[in-house]
Each structure stands twice: as structure tokens, then as C-alpha cells.
Amino acid sequence: MNKFLLTAIVVATLAYGVFAGGGEDDVHADTYKFESNVEYDGTFNYVFETTNGITAEEKSTGPHSVKGGFAYYSPEGELITMSYVADENGFHPKSTILPTPPPIPPAILRSLEYIRTHQKKSEN
């Protein structure tokens, strides 16, 4: 299972860099660093880097959890990075490129505070 996950992530990351964000140089990019270690107990780690600036790494942190990240350059030349943890509570990415919800309007915040401070006492 871990080998499949590792292979899928590597292929997806490379495919994304070549087909979605890349330019002419991405087609001819080479992998110049690749390290992979899979132990008999199922733990693993890997790191790779390509000549066009794509990097990725991941490490198992327990029997059902991993921690990792990747980085690449957008077509505009901006460095995009993402780190993540995947465990029994799900996938938790962290990056400045992820969408964020809009702020809660002040009127709603005041309403919520009023409701919190003016709750009816339960009748027994």
C-alpha cells in the first residue's frame, strides 16, 4: 500500500509539473536527486528534485500517517509550496495558495456574541 501511495504521489507531482504548470523546459526536465527508503515494517521516506525546480518529500510518521510537502514554480515564476500531514484525522495541507473563507462580518460576530451572553436559562 505504501509503495503504491509513494508511486502515485511521485507520478502525480511530475505529471502536474509537466502538463499543468510547465513550459518548454519542463518537458526536458531531469531528476537529479532521488532517495527512497522502504523498511520491512512499512515505514518509508522519499525525496526527489528535478532540474526545473520541482521538489517533493514524504515520510511516514506512524503506521497510518505521513508528513510531507512539495514545491514547484508556477508559469508566472512564483515558487509554490505546500506541506501536509495525512493521518487518522484526514489530509491537512498548509499553503498560501489554498483558498480561505472570507472574514465573518462584524454584524454577525456581534449577533453571535449577543446570543452567547443572553441564553435563556433552562426551565427545570
From TrEMBL:
Q: Give this protein's Gene Ontology molecular function annotations.
A: structural constituent of chitin-based larval cuticle
Naming one, the record's GO cellular component terms include: chitin-based extracellular matrix
Signal peptide residue numbers:
1-20
Keyword Signal assigned to the entry: answer is yes
Report if keyword Signal is assigned: yes
Entry keyword set: Cuticle, Signal
Q: Which residue stretches, if any, does this entry annotate as coiled coil?
A: none
List the Pfam families hit by this protein, alphabetically.
Chitin_bind_4
Q: Which PANTHER family match?
A: CUTICLE PROTEIN (PTHR10380), CUTICULAR PROTEIN 65AU, ISOFORM A-RELATED (PTHR10380:SF237)
**What protein is this chain from?**
Pupal cuticle protein Edg-78E-like
Q: Which organism is it from?
A: Stomoxys calcitrans (Stable fly)
Gene that encodes it: 106091587
